[in-house]
Queue: 4 jobs
Job 1
Amino acid sequence: MSEALLLRDVSFRYGAKQALDGVSFAVPRGRFCALLGPNGAGKSTLFSLLTRLLVTREGDIRVAGHDMARAPRAALAKIGVVFQQPTLDLDMTVARNMAYFAALHGISGRAAQAQIDAALERLEMRERAGEKVRNLNGGHRRRMEIARALVHGPELLLLDEPTVGLDTASRLAITEHVHALAGGGLSVLWCTHLVDEIAPEDDVVVLHKGRVLAQKRASELAGGGTLQDAFMEMTGAGQGA
Amino acid sequence: MIGFLTALVAIVRREAARFVNQRSRFFAALVRPLVWLVIFAAGFRAALGVSIIPPYQTYITYEVYILPGLCGMIQLFNGMQSSLSLVYDQEMGSMRLLLTSPLPRWWLLFCKLMAGVAVSILQVYAFLGIAALYGIQLPWEGYLLVFPALIVTGLMLGALGLLISSTVKQLENFAGVMNFVIFPMFFLSSALYPLWKMAESSELLRDICAWNPFTHAVELIRFSLYVTPNLWALTVVVLCFVVFFGLSLWGYDPARGLMRRKGG
């Protein structure tokens, strides 16, 4: 069984500044993988490479077996994306936002409606389909964005610090929802700098100064102590949640 | 292919719905050319005589002369406004959503252009309707023939806006760009005065106007409104569209352009 996401020796630089240096890791199918790194570790750059907002000639990125450089459209079709910054049209209803996104993936009509309903159902948002996004609270907007990212049936869900700006209850709810999606067979790459969003059985990739420091189960990484302590020891004090 | 059309329809519908919902934007888009038509042109009518020049068959009033230029102005402002919304989308993140669609990037950007063109055509026809009520009527065939002309001119001006949006890093920088693009393009064109009239005051200015792509957009609209072919204007407008759109695609290429400069 191939990996949902595979990176091999991926490097990227902004002019003279090396943002990523030989990054390699894999997200197996059906796993929740946290990409853990302090601010400035290179998470956002990596996220841009995974969504093809940036491209690099150094290294390989494969999504569900599709090479991002040679078959970008096939690779992008397998990815659902939730950006750190909300990307919603506030004056449209939840359903219209979802339909617009489905259309960007070439899905319309009854097929789109069925997939929108199913995605909203998975995130327990179906009863809010007719509401304007402007009237939703932050947590529900985030859940809607996650539901939207599932409309086209991706194999890999990418989330870039999706709990930024949310209160504790909403953070917990979002984290649980996405863990449940991984439990249902979806592969997840969750970018964060907050260790309390990671469960002991999750995979963790620690990214620091553009390099992968470790890829292990969270419980293994924590050793006998806490993940927080292990993370701070690896990346230096003062970082993390 | 169906997927391509689905995306096109969705993007155009979204832009049109946004425009219709923003009533102030709709009225502003109409008021601007109407002020020029009703106030500016009335004042200039006495000062500026317009002789018989193609495509006109007889002497015309100044209001009749500037009507096509004002149609072009609507599209010019609209193209720049679409560009502004693209810069806004880049800052707000919705552009990222668009660009991570598995459809080809050139098609997605073309869809954005077509959405802007659709909105600009709605505005132009509303303006032509009010102008007709005001007494400026055109051959009925002109109202039909100007439709494809407006698509081509709208695409060219929209592509120019797209090109600008690919070079502007922040929303705050946009006002300056507007001043350096919209006003020179509009005033250094045949929108307000025929080129021969411009030549009377300055041959150099006339030459600059003749090189201005907006002049050719205005002339294409003018000739189409009077059911007269103008292949030269059509050729220039199409070529300019190809160049502007090509450069925009380069600007939005993830390997070279926008996102890399913006640091992801």
Note: Residues 2-261 of chain B form one domain.
Job 2
Amino acid sequence: MIKIGLITDNYHLEKKSIQFLKYANTISDVSIYLEEDYMIDFSNYNFDEDIFFVKAKGDLVLNLVKLIEKETTIPVINSSRSISLAFNRFLNSIVLRKAGIQVPNFSLNPVGQSPPFNEYIIKNIIDKENYAFNPQIQKKEGYLRVVDIRAIDESSGNYPKYTHFYFQDFIKSKWEYKVYLIGDDIFYFKQLPVLINPDKMKSRIKIEKIPELTEIAYNATEAMGLKLSSMDFLKSKDGKFFLTDINSSPNFNYIKNGPKIIGDYLIKQAKI
Amino acid sequence: MNIGILSKKKGKLIREIRKCLENNGHRVKIFTLNDLFVNEMLLNKDFYILKSKNLLYLYAGYFLEANMIPVIPNTNTSYVHKDRVESYFSMKNLGLLCPKIFMGTLKTLKSQLKESSFPLISKPIFGSGSKGVKVYNSFQDFNTPTENYLYLENFIKGTHYLAYFIENEICICEKRPLSNEHQATELIKSDKEIEKYLIKWKEKYNLLFGHLDLVRETKTNKLYVVDAGTFPEFSNWKCDTDPALKISDLILNKYHEVRK
């Protein structure tokens, strides 16, 4: 029987992985590496798993993944590089743009300094914690300015992580397009933008394949090295899709049979 | 040429490098954190010197390189030196001896470490030098509650060295354990093994200059690398060469080589 190592944390284990584990336990032998309980000894890398599945993005998780990648040939989905890039909005904007993907204009400015565009969202640079987008919306001189409270948290307090804000040019869009990618399979949804309706699931509907999004999704995940991902897109007035967010650890419970699709995919990718 | 220097502080070395470059007819701007805007505005320089490894400077470096503006030293090399786990793997792959490393919560470290692992030293996972380090001699020293994950290394008891290189010139000093780069050191004549380590490290990353912190263990006489840096202050450089002048020349030559 194939052995899957699930590298996760308490939050993802309890809130996001129950359905996956239920299915995975029927087709494989699953061992769990829990961030809160695991000590990494970098001289010990005798793992007997055939594949690792990473469902978290904490520091210990990422370094455990690095150890497995550097010292073994066991496949890990997703890789440490791709996870690190996905939660760093600034770095993934650079990588995606370099790969020819359309992302909104962005700028890193010292706190208190305005960006070179009129309408913007200030987002947290590192999107790693398990709490959601928390916007403060303002209209100044007729322009829309949105601040995610998580960005304020990141650059305030006694030990601010950053002295700068990440600004993203605001793209007006009727719908937000959500694309899930599992290997070569893509699933398409649309929903009202979170700024209009914070309950994203309420307006979410499954939609037919959009060839333009398919191409962007493949190119974006290839540039980032992601095998599993979800991506958010906004469509501008002139019909261009902008990739505004890319995630390495999406909730696949939102897809019909998501946990089964993931489990089957991991079995196919396992070390032979 | 228009040259940008990405540096958190306008310290002595950076001021002198700027002077050398300006004396050669170049226009130089130092970007401290207050005037660092990472967007298209940065793209009006011919190249940048990456002095600080603060995250925002690494971000600026990646941004510039993605836009075909050379950054010296190379951004990813600076990142590898700054991230202790990346640095550990890099040294290990080169065959350089490093202390054993561990990572976990206070709770897991207390329950899973062996008594024989002590003494240990905790360090910020993303950092260099002696800032934020603490020595643990036994389990009793794990007495400060923290939610964070601790990165620990075996603390090697022995003679500590600060070893610099600028191109082919090497300067090795003995230093007090856990002292920073600026504290007093004593020049030693030579140590062939340290020199070998420096050359291997320099060649692996094609470095123009840099430093390694090393410890020769008293009990075994084995040589361990405990830290690496791409752009030290050279405050303990004891050779005749002027570091600022030499570094400026090396950087200009590197820029011309990259442009070709």
Note: Chain A touches chain B through 32 residues (CB under 8 Å).
Job 3
Amino acid sequence: MKKVIKVAIAGNPNVGKTTILNRIAGTSLKVGNWPGVTVEKKEAVVKFGDYEIHLVDLPGIYTLEPISEDERIAVHFLEEERPDVILNIIETPNIERNLLLTTELLEFGIPTVVVLNMIDEANKLGMEVDDRRMEELLGVKVVKTIGRTGVGVNRILPAVVEAYEKNLIPKPVIYGDELERALQKVYESLPKKDVTKHTLIKLLSESEDFLELRKEIESKLGKGIHDIVNDERYAFAHGLFAEVVRKKGVSARDVTDVIDRVVLHPYLGFLIFIGVIYLVFKLSFDFSSPFVDWVDGFINDFLAPLAYSALGLLALPDWFLRFFSEAVVGGVGFVITFVPLIATLYFFITFLEMSGYIPRVAFLMDRFMHRLGLHGKSVIPLILGFGCNVPAIVATRTMESTRDKLLVIMMIPFMSCPARLVVYAFFVSIFFKNHPALVITFLYLLGILVALLTGFLLRKTVYRGSMLHFVMELPPYRLPSLRAVLTIVWVHVKDFLYRAGTLIFGASILIWLLLNLPPGVKNPSESVAGSVGRVLVPVFEPIGIDNWKATTSLIPAFLAREIVISSMGTIYTSAEGIEPQEEGFDAAEAFKEQVVGLGLAFRDALGSLFTLSITSLQVEEEEGEDTLRELIRRDFTPASAMSFMVFILIYTSCLGTYAVMVREIGKLRATLFLGYSFVMAWLVGFVVYRLMMVL
Amino acid sequence: MNIDAVPLGQEFTIKEIKDKDNPIVRKLYAMGLKEGKRSKLLLKNGRVYLLRLNNSRLIIDRDLAKFIEVA
């Protein structure tokens, strides 16, 4: 059996801890360029020589005095779990500040490997770090790396193993005489002698048992105990910095400052922000649209006929062919066509996250958020909500105040995620072909408006009180590598496909079964699913959703919003009997057509990059055909379609979001919020529907 | 004087940081904002300031900035 080494990866926020872990362990954990990407401890296991190395990626901390929840997680692990080795990642351009945490980590007396990351950026700034001298002074292993490119990363695990095998306990950190004397007294008074310097300092600073000793040193040095300890740590870190860092010449002009002067301009910056958001959606829609059409054709004109031919040869029963056509092709297949849209949107969101732009929005939007009683930092989880509500809710752990955290969590579910975009894209392509961008923009803005209204209502009623201070570090801009962005995009796409293969497929099967029960039912409206849908019709009728097929599709949508589409696919193909076209299918010819189609999709997608307006989603479709779109056109009006989309936007119909809300704010609050979002969705849907009927 | 009085683009020295028992002030300290340090006011936006401190950039709000005496 391999021996286990437990390694804690610790460091300041946004120093590249997760990037390095991904490089070492081959994981695809989320990375970004702002402080607070990692808010939970994540573990990866790698085998190296005779060892199984458990690498625990901790949220970033500036100090071992935690304020926010993510910081508490990191500090708790270091204090309570006692890792075998500490891997301290340092952002070398800011090494002086980073060494303050290094000093605190050394107090644990645990074998330590210091990683001088972003060494290329430090060199550009004219800094040179003497790693050998640092090893000599601290008694630790030191490795220089460039996490983004992987340079030097292969030297980390050998250093970890060496530190562990040789039990390289760092040299003791020695502070000033007065503090050392006081710590010695604390040590002598303890019955158990197996304590770290970190514990001794904590006891001296906080324990009632050492109140007299604390007062004594405070009066001797004329300052509070926290000041004494911090000044000593800082002096140690500064001394170390002076000893190991050499500055050569003048550093180059900083590009970040130049960009920030424009991007963070109070007025111009706001316009740029709007422009960036527009570009993200324009490029996502237009670039993905040809591929969405291609995947649709690939499934319906190639895969499905091919499968029907194969199933025909096997002489399977009629019910199975129907199941395949209605639940698999009609349900899951339909949702999968939107994978290119999801992938492209995530590509741009990830690019923004990794470039360092997202935290800038916090600075820009503070003026506006302040009016809501929140500070700019709360914008970050809200923006992340456009990617997915679940990690956005978890990201609120970086917030120092519980009040702010609760307020923001209750606003996030109204940020429209890509799963909802799938539903809009579908309905807009049927009912709003001439103004797709306008309608989708309206829905996104409506979501933001409901979030702001919710925040305002909560602040005026439940969550009164003043906000905490706003302090945050802004990272430099970094051009993310294509590989890194695509890795994250693949994680999201894989997750979407996984959901399609599990949750969505399961829901499609269930819906299909309920549409065919009780056994022998001829008219799907009289099936179990139809009966449930018909019971719900009176609830939704006032908002224009007056047919059982639509109301039934809303029920499984609680699992994930895109299930609305797969359920509609299953229900409509089942109820209206869309026949698979399988006659005269030539697999070779169809395959050739698909290859040509893919080439054309690439051409159209690239061509779309050179237009300014959003041109996609303007689907040309022959009216009168019994396609799913045409069947839905018969059952909805533009007003009821809009009301349906508004309902999907506002109602928190997503199990993942509900589950994470239960974890973060408790079952009662999460369930109350679910009820609130339902009522709000219904009310806004009602207003929108009635207004559209009048206009 | 405090940061509010510093013109944009001007460098200043941190003279004193008040209320060091306040956890958020201690966080500022850990982020490198310390007496004697040179800093530069890069931008202002409403009630928030963007400071440059060595090679890092810090956003702090006006109320927090009041804890910092500069020269």
Note: The interface with chain B takes residues 62-63, 65, 67, 93-94, 96-97, 100-101, 125, 224, 226-227, 230, 234, 256-257, 260-261, 264, 266, 269, 362-364, 366-367, 370, 375-376, 400, 468-476 of chain A (CB under 8 Å).
Job 4
Amino acid sequence: MSELIFDQSRSGRYAKAQAPKKSVKIDIPAHLLRKDKPFLPEVSELQAVRHYTRLSRKNFSIDTQFYPLGSCTMKYNPRGVHRLAMLEGFLLRHPLSLDVHSQGYMACAYELQEILKAVTGMRGASLTPMAGAQGEFAGVAMIRAYHQSRNDVARTEMLVPDAAHGTNPATAAQCGYTVREIPTDSDGNVNIESLRAAVGPQTAGIMLTNPSTLGVFEQKIEEIAAIMHKAGGLLYYDGANLNAILGKVRPGDMGFDVMHINLHKTFATPHGGGGPGGGPVAVSERLVPFLPTPMVIKSGDTYQWLTEKECPQTIGRLSAFMGNAGIILRAYMYARLLGQEGMIRVAEFATLNANYLLARLKAAGFTPAYAKRRASHEFIITLKKEAKELHITALDVAKRLLDYGFHAPTMYFPLLVPECLLIEPTETEAKEVLDAFVDAMIKIIEEAKTDPALLQEAPYNLPVRRLDEVRAARELDLVYRSDEK
Amino acid sequence: MPFIPHTEHDVKEMLATIGVAKLENLFDEIPDSLRVKNLPAIPASLTEMELARLMRQRAALDSGMLCFMGAGAYEHHIPAAVWDIASRGEFLTAYTPYQAEASQGTLQLLYEYQTMMASLMGLDVSNASLYEGGSAAAEAILMAARSHRKHKTYRVLIPRALHPYYRDVIKTIVGQQDIIQLIEVPFDAATGQTQLSAMEKDLHDEVTAVVIPQPNFFGVLEDADAMTDWAHAHGAIAIGVVNPMAMALLKPPGQWGKKGADIACGEGQPLGVPLASGGPYYGFLCCKRDFVRQLPGRIVGRTVDKEGKQGFVLTLQAREQHIRRAKATSNICTNQGLLVTASTIYMSLLGPEGLRQVAEACYLNAQYLKKKLEILHGVEVVFHSPCFHEIVVRLSKPVDKILRLLANDKIQAGFNLAPIYPELGECLLICVTETKTEADIEWFVKCLAQVLAMNSSTIKNIECAK
Amino acid sequence: MNNSIPKKLKYSRTHEWVRQDDDVLTIGITDHAQTMLGDLVYVELPEPESNVETGHECAVVESVKAAADVYSPVSGEVIEINEALLESPQLINEDPYGKGWLFRVKPFESEIAEDVAKLLTADQYTKQVASEAH
């Protein structure tokens, strides 16, 4: 029974232990007061607890399932880290507390800034962006501020490879840039000739993911950096795939000027059904003055905030306070648990798992999109052949995987590979899990051969069958109506 | 290695399946010149036990304050059930609900949240959340600009009495687009209310949007009806920036003036999210139905499955970056699902009645403090208008020194307004929520009286970095 | 591809069709385009009495998983839009060359000859669609 919390409402009911008992006449002028009762549930504490506990059980999650969602790095989120971030001293700290009462938090934030600089090979870092896309925004805004500070105002174009995440062009547009797409070669690299032809005095920069969204390392990165820098443009590194190279290669050494790090990917902070994230930015020397505020510096034994006052060229504040502090704490703790020795193993084992899974799927007859290339931490298989021969789609396979208890890989992204699944196992999965996933994939294709309808109708074992998204978009139903009951 | 399950035997087998001899060979496509061998700047690995000791020590450094600080982040009681349930792995460790059938828990919860938040704001629809209050206000302004395509430049009126950090965030985010002009509206020195009428003489061009805070940064209640009607009379979109807790008691944006505000946004933190150094919080954004296609971020819709059973999906996705790319309504990908989970459970526990009681208790406590302060020597209540749970007082001594002295008594006395509003003089913004007892308030007043009574030269010598 | 491409219409490379009735042009998207997009859920049309320019975006069609810009094949003034689509975008899926038309334009006389000369015949468009399939 998938009833809504509102279906259980009875007028006058609420969790009485949770509200203060005071009730005196309120002397606020009547025209400022609310007259109607907001439509909130009226349930007991037990009803609320039971309802939301039951809802939780309708979710797939890392804690319950293998979740090989490509480009999202769904690795284990350590429980101890979550528990320690919920210590009362951290939870009750007001964001505007005086520095004397903030040294505990500030020490963690400062040390994370230093750790991020070390793993990225950059010279400065700011933790305030609240998610990858806001990190991108901060990065592109810094590129803009840099050009403007040099009176180099004719640079109006941002280059973006056609395989890029949607956030890249959306961010460039939000910062006032015109987006110019650069095509990809058949081997998955950026087409160098097109890049050469595209750069000029109008070029502000390029936004790149490396390894790319195609799951392969951009081998000509040094050449790309040289072309861009010669043209006066800067290089933005989209850190979405940092897990693939953590401890192996550093964006700063590749020639990038600015990047963001998705803490909810590479640094294992929980993503909570779509957020929070964390998108710190790290920059090369020339962009340090433009970093978003506030940041933490260490002076002697004490930590202090750097604000607009100390950083006059900053692009400014991105949130009212200092970003997703609780996520910053968790990422810091994760980094301390890994330490130097664990950090350099992340990419190794993420890559081992991806290449093993790819090798096994290939042996089972699946088609890799870039067969000649080494997989990074993720890889793409294309079901173009299966679609033609068996009349099934990548979507059908994805939905059937859910029945077998696996979260589906990312589907239909990148857009340039037809019928694709982007698969990222991460380093925290054991070999047996990967083997079980391969077995399920083999079984699904066997099913498709005998009964394609079985896939087309999937899933069967979940709380709902396949949902009508067209109806959802045509007949928008975004809130429950109070007269519905 | 922490969190890596592979045995030596596993590694051998896996490498054999791949057909390479060593782990290192998996990186053979990366130019040798770019490889790093180790990361000396990173400290050695800790066990969970060692980490726990370190973190407890650090948390202790920041603990034990009696908090009278508000200024956009508010300490409220959070029922134990809220984070017990939100911390369940199924909520905590799920990704964005791309596979709807495997995410019905999160999706249904978001639909319930949208219903609750829209109703709390008196508006038709809500998105599934944004990052936090400041950036939500910036997104609301961008939304208004998109809805006014015919304007050549977009002129947006922003009260000086809006949270100063929200104004900073708006400047950072909206300021990237030269086409939008932000115009500051002054406040009245006696009432602390925004003086929209003062703008009349300077306005020669169209106005795109008017931002209306309720309560404003000083805790003062604005005449939101009049401001909304003024906005509509000038063809502008009315954007409410409100404290959602206060909306259990105060008239919500959708009911302001003759037609109601068009968009409402703000900080969701007061509803079940701990102070936690400023985040993660979540921003809410609601609007009238006509604006739904301009609404950024994730939105959940109700539909049916192939057997006709009710279910929930992400909808209106064609507005979003992963489809529209450079033409998307915003670049936002992440929302704050976990915080919305906590907030939805919080609102369900309190209900309309409980939430109103919390809001009333905040108001009454603030009134109690105000009465005590009005008769205190060296303290002057600055604004004479109705307020919610924050008040501005002018002190006879420098605020930064007084804050530092009260910190010795483990009291966080409030937010120093002097650096941001020099025109107000030595002013302090104090907040009281339902978490404080009369005894707490009396203790605060007593300590404040003591430090104000100290010799001026003693106070002058107090060191205060910040 | 089994999508219909009526002989009597003209086409653009960006998958719009054009029908000429005296001095008025009716514009829509082709059967091939609607098939590629899937079930349409929303349409944004140009403002009546506004001007559209050849090759410029003037409308948007959205399905659940995709959004496509519609480029005006000619320059002129919009004299009528298909308001039925605002409520029922599925008309484009059901009848792309009939009830699913998007808008009507009165072309600028100075540019019409050049614009029409650039349009494809049904045969040319058929070839283009076939080449895109590879």
Note: The mean pLDDT of chain B is 94.
